[in-house]
Amino acid sequence: MKAWLGLVMAAVLTATGGTAYAGDAGDATYGVVTSEYDLGDEAVTLPGGVKSELRAKVYGPKDAPGKRPLVVFLHGYHDACYGGDQKQRWPCAPDQRPVPSFRGYDAPGRELAKHGYVVVSISSNAVNRNVSKTLDAATRLRGELVLAHLDLWKHSSRVDLDNVGLMGHSRGGEGVVAAALANAARPHPYGIKAVLPLASTSATRQALPGIALNLITGYCDGDVYDLQGQHLYDDSRYDTSAPKSQVLLMGANHNFFNSEWTPGQAEAPATDDWAFNPDEEPCGTATPTRLTAVQQQALGRVYISGFFRWILGGEEAQGKLFDGSDPNVTSQSPDRLDLARFDQPVSTTGDLTATVCTGSPSWLPDPNPELPFCTENEQPDRFPHWVPSFFLPTVPNPAITALHWTGPGALRIPVNARKQYDVLTFRAAADPDKPSTFTIRLIDDQGHRDVAVSLENLPGKPENAQPKTLLRTVRIPLKTTNLKAVELRTANEGRAFISDLALSTPSRGRTTLNQLPRISVSDAAPVAEGNSATKVNFTVTLNRPSHQQVTVHAETAGFTADPEIVLPLTTTITFVPGETRKTVAVQIRGNTTAQPDQDFKLALAVPRNAITDDAWATGKVLDDDTGPNTQHDKQAPALPPRGGPGYRGM
């Protein structure tokens, strides 16, 4: 193995020194060399016995001294094979070829290598063919595949595994989040410091505190058209250790970030995922507001490379791309003072009212029944902050404040800052039907300064699940050292949504993910149905006591069991300081009718003051009645614990 890796590294870089990389002075650039490695279609066994390829394209800086930062790219869900009978399988049939999705990120790969980074873009075709065999749509498998590749690179003296970044596209976005969480549970974790979900899904609602996180979202995404990756930012944004940001790229679709998913560039068949009217702005291919593939890939190169150069390389000039200066960038710095999250009631005067709200109507149960909807619009795909998660539709959504004014009014937030900050920031969105304007008044000992704020609506038509309502950062530079209060003042009629008022200074922060307590849920023992009420007990544990209160959402997930037998559960589990063990009871309603056994799942999501480790567990209700519909089967095998039997790393 070491000899093999040495050959790969010899092909991608030549090191002349032994010191760790600490940023190249003067924005040094290098020649770029590339190579590939391929250990076979079934080279590693992942949890659940899934056999996966270990295949990657490597980009490296030629003649770069010292150990270099390592960035891993992970593509998302796509066809694994093409040609032949067109059926999807793994390994591919003899008359088929694997789809080379891992070769599609040349632009950011070369850009990072030019600036001194080693980039490993990995193939995950086997994982994509095993989605239906897993509890969580293969999210954990993707994460473990990333770690299997990092395990290969620990044999190299040329990369710095204490300075690692991860980028994941589409379902790969959740995959790299899963990799960072799984890495934290290892006895000797790698130094993962930055995670970038690109056009990501968020079906499992895992938060990622304690690490730098940047999302890139295409407004014209025709695949993840509800922009559900927004949840990754919302669920992680109150981190006080590392920065969180989100880049909204107007005119960008889902596929064109990867050249192997782009018509005219791809080796295998490829399509434009935006399938609506080509003549309709902003996303129609015949309109000037839609990005071409080349334009989109150029922007992807800038933002993907810029994020890792900022966090891993300390290039502060790159950080300006992510601090909220651009109105299409949402940002939350760890160096901040939260003034008002606007998830609790605030007082107003005059003709201004403020209502704490969340969500919009959908066919799923309301996850926040105690709060009113923020909008009565029945197109949840237009409201990414509140779009239901596929697996966990009752996870509580972000609560914000809806403002409505018919004339002059104000709300006032006092300030008691013990240090000087650079900017005042908050997130806001216009009423879905029209623009909004108001004034922010900054009050200090010398008087006040008024700043006009104008919120514009995003473009698009309802039949295309647009326009989206997205909270975006409003950023006001501070000119005072003694701010006493902030007022929002209104004049004419209007509506707006507001959240997260804070004073802040841009900062790269520090990585604390591996230091946080970890929450796990264990599989429950099978239970006989009985003829009346019983229950299935799951055990939820913290790996160590915490000095802070820890909460986590728990929900029966997957829509696989009869809700008349397995009663749906959604609850918040709270660990007070010192507690490490909780029992969650899922109620069972027995009967005397012969039916199949009931398999179901319990999932954990959006923890606070902790991270999830094993977030999914299985339960089973055994039917104990007799008749023609009786079906007794074995309990579906649970995923083995990381590092335990059934898992084989390299």
TrEMBL record:
It comes from the Bacteria. Residues 619-650 are annotated as: Disordered. Residues 1-22 form the signal peptide. The keyword Chaperone does not apply. The keyword Nucleotidyltransferase does not apply. Gene3D superfamilies: 2.60.40.2030, alpha/beta hydrolase. Keywords: Signal. This is Calx-beta domain-containing protein.
